[in-house]
Automatic annotation (TrEMBL):
Stored PANTHER family: LONG-CHAIN-FATTY-ACID--COA LIGASE (PTHR43767), NONRIBOSOMAL PEPTIDE SYNTHASE PES1 (EUROFUNG)-RELATED (PTHR43767:SF1)
All copies of domain AMP-dependent synthetase/ligase, residue ranges: 18-348
GO MF annotation terms: 8-demethylnovobiocate synthase activity; acid-thiol ligase activity
CDD domains referenced in this protein's UniProt entry, alphabetically: AFD_class_I
InterPro entries found in the cross-reference section: AMP-bd_C, AMP-bd_C_sf, AMP-binding_CS, AMP-dep_synth/lig_dom, ANL_N_sf, ATP-dep_AMP-bd_enzyme
Classification via Gene3D superfamilies: 3.30.300.30, N-terminal domain of ligase-like
EC primary class: ligase
Sequence ranges assigned to domain AMP-binding enzyme C-terminal in this UniProt record: 399-474
Protein name: 8-demethylnovobiocic acid synthase
Superkingdom of this protein's organism: Bacteria
EC number of this enzyme: 6.3.1.15
Alphabetically ordered keywords of this record: Ligase
Key word Ligase present: yes
Length: 482
């Protein structure tokens, strides 16, 4: 008999939890039984509103038991869930939600934020009748379960489409399939601090892992580290390179008691080796350095005691290939291709890019790396021209085109540079138009921020007379920086 699609295992987990606390929110303890009742109510409300398999549902939600119940309920009815993360421009929000039929929101101005689809207020959905019957999952394995936004080559969010079959195969809810590093991590997630939005892939998937390991989800609004870790007695949380740098600096300046902390899952741009070493000295062996993509989910993860830069032994099928597509031996750099149980099936509405990235069951990561003699993964570069800001990938091409469209700029070239706050930032190099003065940095930043978001706005602008060229006559941006 075929397994019930996602979120069947999660519904069973909540039912089995009974009166055990699975979530803490605003001083309130929420049991598995209570959370499952909320899922039933929202499921009933969604079905009464006409939401069914394949319907697009955009979600603008924070964190809390009601918000988690809404995400689970939308999957229970088989909807195509589109999570709208903070930080998108209005145009990006509209592009991402262009073909949704419903919007579930916990925000008073939810209708004004996204002028598409029918708005369903979370508060109203939670007030629906509870029939007390375990919901039947209506999802079909081949249907798209969620659309995960990531930046693309046009500047609009690319949308990774993950099917219900892929979500059902996710490692998070399958303890029997956990690789050693995930089993060790799950054992440290007794009190997992969740923040931002539960529509986030990273936050939801790690949250599922915590629940499967018997842990409690502890909510925080916009947490400041280390205060939030201390206040909520968190044993685990997700952290970006920028947040880790600030946490280390804060603890170095004013030590606090972080004795409860056992795991920080680091994601985003590669951290400086010195940061990992200092984090180990100040915080203890708590940093799990992960590598993954929106398209693939987790690929590999290093234990806290691992050598800085090493990403552990991949937990999925991985090949390092040369330019001809041939697999390379250990110790040789090449492009990384992977196969993961929960990988996306393609980009929603973009068959051309889908064919480029998803081929013959493999995902082309467009990252460069190598495997060592112990099977550990090391990243060495990118084939993509991108900047990673606060763990989000943004292409540089749209930034260059926007800057070059300014009447005072003849050419523009952008590179990613290390940034102590965001992990990486954009450094723009511009060639002035004849007889023109280059605009002030503030003007160029405002131009980019308005169209592509603040994360893409250049942190620095350098005027150049001409761009250096490769032997083939193409711009060589690697030579722009000393």
């Amino acid at each position: 008999m075929a397994e019930e699609p996602f979120p069947g295992r999660l519904l069973d987990l909540l039912e089995a939890a009974g009166e055990r606390t699975v979530m803490e929110h605003a001083g309130r303890l929420v049991s598995g039984r209570s959370l499952l009742a909320a899922v039933r109510r929202v499921t009933g409300g969604l079905r009464a509103a006409g939401v069914g398999p394949g319907d697009g549902v955009a979600m603008t939600l924070g964190v809390g038991p009601g918000q988690l119940a809404a995400v689970v309920a939308a999957h229970t009815v088989g909807a195509r869930v589109v999570g709208v993360r903070p930080g998108l421009t209005r145009r990006q929000e509209e592009s991402l939600t262009a073909d949704v039929s419903f919007i579930v929101t916990d925000k008073p101005d939810g209708a004004a934020m996204l002028c598409v689809g029918r708005v369903l207020a979370l508060e109203v959905l939670l007030g629906s009748r509870d029939d007390g019957i375990r919901p039947v999952v209506a999802a079909r394995p081949q249907d798209v379960a969620r659309v995960l936004p990531t930046s693309g080559s046009t500047g609009e969010p690319k949308s990774c489409a993950q099917t219900y079959g892929a979500m059902t195969a996710l490692w998070a809810l399958r303890p029997d399939a956990w690789p050693p590093v995930i089993r060790e991590l799950a054992g440290r997630m007794d009190r997992f601090l969740v923040f931002g939005t539960l529509a986030s892939q990273v936050m939801l998937d790690y949250g599922l892992l915590a629940l499967a390991g018997g842990g409690v989800l502890v909510t925080a609004g916009v947490p400041e580290f280390p205060d939030a870790l201390v206040r909520h007695r968190a044993t685990a949380s997700v952290i970006t390179v920028a947040r880790l740098a600030r946490l280390v600096a804060a603890v170095r300046e004013q030590p606090v008691d972080l004795g409860a902390l056992r795991a920080l899952m680091l994601s985003g741009s590669p951290p400086p080796p010195g940061l990992l070493r200092e984090a180990g000295e100040l915080l203890g062996p708590v940093v799990f350095h992960g590598y993954g993509q929106t398209e693939t989910g987790m690929i590999s993860m290093a234990m806290p005691e691992e050598e800085p830069g090493a990403l552990g032994v991949p937990a999925v099928d991985l090949q390092v290939r040369d330019a001809d597509g041939s697999s390379l031996p250990p110790g040789v750099d090449g492009e990384i291709f992977v196969r993961t149980p929960g990988q996306a099936s393609g980009y929603w509405g973009d068959p051309v890019l889908s064919a480029e990235v998803f081929a013959e069951g493999w995902v082309r990561t467009r990252d460069l790396g190598r495997l060592d003699s112990r099977g550990r993964l090391w990243l060495t570069g990118r084939t993509r021209d991108v900047v990673i800001v606060n763990a989000y990938v943004h292409p540089l091409g749209p930034v260059e085109r926007l800057l070059a469209g300014h009447p005072a700029v003849a050419e523009a070239y952008c590179v990613a540079v290390p940034d102590a706050v965001a992990g990486e930032a954009v450094h723009a190099f511009v060639v002035p138009a004849d007889g023109s003065e280059v605009p002030l940095l503030a003007e160029l930043r405002a131009l980019v921020a308005a169209e592509l978001g603040v994360a893409c706005a250049p942190a620095a602008v350098t005027v150049i007379r001409e761009v250096p060229l490769t032997a083939a006559g193409k711009p060589d941006k690697r030579r722009l920086l000393p």
